[in-house]
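Box 3.1. Reading complex inputs
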Amino acid sequence: MIDYFHYAVDNDGICTLTIDQPDSSVNVMDQNFIDSFKVNLERAFADSAVKGIILTSAKTSFVAGADLKSMEERLNKPQDPKELFDKCWGFSSLLRKMETSGKPMVAALNGPALGGGFEISLACHHRIAINSPQVLVGLPEVGVGLLPGAGGTQRMMRLIGVANALPLLLQGRQLRAEKAFEKGLIHELCNADELITRSKAWLNGTPDTEQPWDRKGFRIPGGNSLMQPEIAQLFMGTAANLQSTTFYNMPAPAAITSCLYEGIQLPIDKALQVECKYFVQLNIDPVSSNMVRTAFINKSKADNLIHRPKGIEKKLHKKIGVLGAGLMGAGIAFSAAKAGIDVILIDHDQEAADKGKEYSANRLQKDIDRGRSTPEKKEQLLSRIHSTTDYQLLGETSLVVEAVFEDRDVKAEVFAKAEAAMPEDAVLATNTSALPITGLAETTSNPGNMVGLHFFSPVERMPLVEVIKGQQTSDQTLAHALDFVAQLRKTPILVNDSRGFFTTRFIGAFINEGVAMVAEGINPALIENAARHLGYPVGPLSISDEVGLDLAYKAAVQSQADLGDDYKEGASLPVITRLVTEHQRYGRKNGKGFYAYNADGSKALWSDLAEIWPRLSDDQQPSEAEVQSRMLFSQLADAARCIADNVLTSPVDGDIGGCFGVGFPFYLGGPFSAIDTKGIAQVVTECDRLASTYDAERFAIPQLLRDMAANGQTFYGRNPVTLG
Amino acid sequence: MPEAYIYDYIRTPRGKGKANGALHEVTPVQLATQTLQAIKNRTPQAAESIEDVILGCVVPVGEQGGNIARIAALNADYPQTVPGIQLNRYCGSGLEAINFAAAKVISGMVDMAIGGGVESMSRIPMGSDGGAWAIDPLIAFKTGFVPQGISADLLATKYGFTRSQCDEYAAESHRRANNAWREGYFSNSVVAVNDSLGIPLLSKDETIRPETSAETLRQLSPSFAKMGEKAGFDRIALQKYPELEKLNHVHHAGNSSGIVDGAAAVLLGNRELGAQLGLKPRARIVSTATIGSEPTIMLDGPADSARRALKKAGMTASDIGLWELNEAFSSVVLAFMEELAISHDSINVNGGAIAMGHPLGATGAMILGTLIDEMERRDITHGLVSLCEAAGMATSTIIERI
């Protein structure tokens, strides 16, 4: 055991336990933490010289949270419920011992205390925090499909009541110390230099050695009976809201609500056990494993640029160029300026370029109106964006992003103009969402400098950038492009060049399947509901309308022209073509698509769809599960082909790309986590069934997956497949 | 095996279930007491022979709590040898109480019993008894809980019933109930409720509005649209019925059953004891059926429960001359008529709960009595009475006039 704690007792009998994980900039809650915490606590409880205990940290944070490495190991191990319960209960009951040892304990919060760190604090009799915006407290476990399993739900509810605790727990909110103080989660705020003296002062006064809930006659603030109408209403409303928004796909919010519903009726000791059991259930559920893997482990790998070529010095971009000041270009300029980078924003005339800059001004004004920014910050940021028509200003840039029309000739023209002015080793990136990079690079004088940087709309909100490596993209170009993404504080995935890269073809598989079903006479409401109920943010017909049916049609015509004999028509194209060419239905933009859009903002599926594609009778309609299977497995098969064909080099990119870029259900963790969870053999069987029933190509499974099934391999876990 | 015969039936008039309702000052025990007393007054020779009093009560808390049937029997001066039991089959409780009484008679467990029900909705509001269904997150998730009004709108959407169809049905309920009162069709069975001085408080159902028309109802706003959209219940409903694009919120206070106070009691027994006591049987219980159905749409069970009762009786729908189905919501009756191909002319012919109200625990007994009275008046042999029930259940009973 490595001891993470310093133990010191002063003359007044106050023991200060300082968390200070050796050789680390932060304290993380791994097994060493838990074991040494227990040893130090027991020493203090047994030490007759100790009359009170202060718990604080030597780092800038109190406790940073769970340890990713041990979490990843845990994901790969099957869990026995009883064993896991004993382990979790060991920690939860240790916290219970803290509050019942008879010695008063103060949590002296010098930095963020989130998750387990805040649960430890809640089990102390008194919480003092430095009043600084850096000191955040909260229980964010719900975000990765878990709940605070060491008393967090029970102590928060008992401190501030069900009505106040539920939203904090269900949204996993992190509160600044000041806000937490207002809500009653922290007792005292202080200046940084007073933290220990104030803690000692409390202990030297007449400190409580009992938690409020251990006192006779304790009542939970706001009520603790389910027969109270407001409490019953609260639970009814919460259960309804969760059902209607999570579609039963997310077990954590429901489990948290159950912890409160059941815990409100129990004494604390029983309530803690119930909570711990729900925690174990969530841990065993693949949803939490998938969310933890994607949100924490894989995202941190991507953020740490796992694909960055080695041996190339890190590039700090100070000035970049953006070609095309439309929606995407303007968003990229805004994001770059926000990251402190100077931007030359170029369009074909000054008015268009200024309009692109105006986008940032409007966004910042909104932030000011909401109290999230100041006029000074706005001016400072806007001063970094230079809108112009003059390509000569690209002279000192280290990277230029092209964001003009998806038209080869237009792109070739702006590439030539930019290259003439750019430094020779600067990166030339294109924001194309579908055109192969290698082909575009051929129109430039230095194809090694070209890379794809596929941003998502709205750029400033979407966390993902799909980085596309063309055949000739140099290692330096790739490294510098990844450095740029990191500077924007966005998450990159790396994709090898191919039509539609990864994200575009991956979402395309989903939309294609959904739209194809319309032509088969499947009830469009069923298609849309099935997608939403499976966890997609919007149905395939709604997305089609949002993107624009006319754009989808034009893109198909373009790729037909590009590919000639190699072109394969998607199953959805006949549907889109008819809507666009025969019925002038272009999508939301002209108020007519799969939906009819009303002036009041409402929409309804266009009733004439059934006239064009006669509806199957009710008893011939497929089940919702079958419709879901088609949409989901068309995507899983496509992702499997991407990895077999080396479009993707790692499941990490596919899972991050699917979830953070194109709305793949987060609870499934991404396509590769989903394939692992469902079982490789089961996925092969289902795709084969769908292939023989509907379409051999859309559900075609690569040999790789069949081999994995035969060898008992998975994408993640103890027996991972070797790729490449 | 003995047969179960119906010898007598009494109900209170139904008072508006609000603080200004005529029966609001009367305790629920008193409501039940006065119906039991009325039975005893009409057939005093039977009191000693009654071996159970089974009363439906859907919100059995507070003054309706404990076992209101036994307490009302004692209060009605039944011999102390007469026990009582309260049961809850949600809205079908009053009929289920009769079915349970019949089952006891048929099985030979008792020779004579009372089935009935009571509910003072003005004094003990719906939902006061809590329960896990709506508020325990695990249970709400498992069952796809939605409030009943959402279920009614879901039913209407599924069957494609329009707002105006529902309104027209509701207006007809008022017209028929008004006509029945005017013609005195209820006079043999409704006994006025008296106050503590013995002065009648109410002698006629309080909520009938003869002037109601589909046109006047059109003015009312849907009751469940906001709840459905804001609280998310519509989306919960669509998870069970993904073939529907959205819910059509057609129900409102005017085409849903009314909230009222009331009680009813039915005297049942075997043939032998009835003959010994000189009682004339009015009808025989032919068959009964309570079924479970999908709990989110909740209210479409009556057709299946009627089919099962018919099957048990070896009958078909065409053998039934007169129907009573509780008017929980317009769409419930419209769906039932469509499922069993029943003409509006032969169902709820004297109106129903939309006009006269639905005192939850008592309604089943009330509409069984209404059916017997009307079968006698029309000289009809077979009738079927049915109610939809919360959480996806329904109870039906087929009776044969003697």
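In summary: The CA atoms of residues 172 and 351 of chain B lie 7 Å apart.
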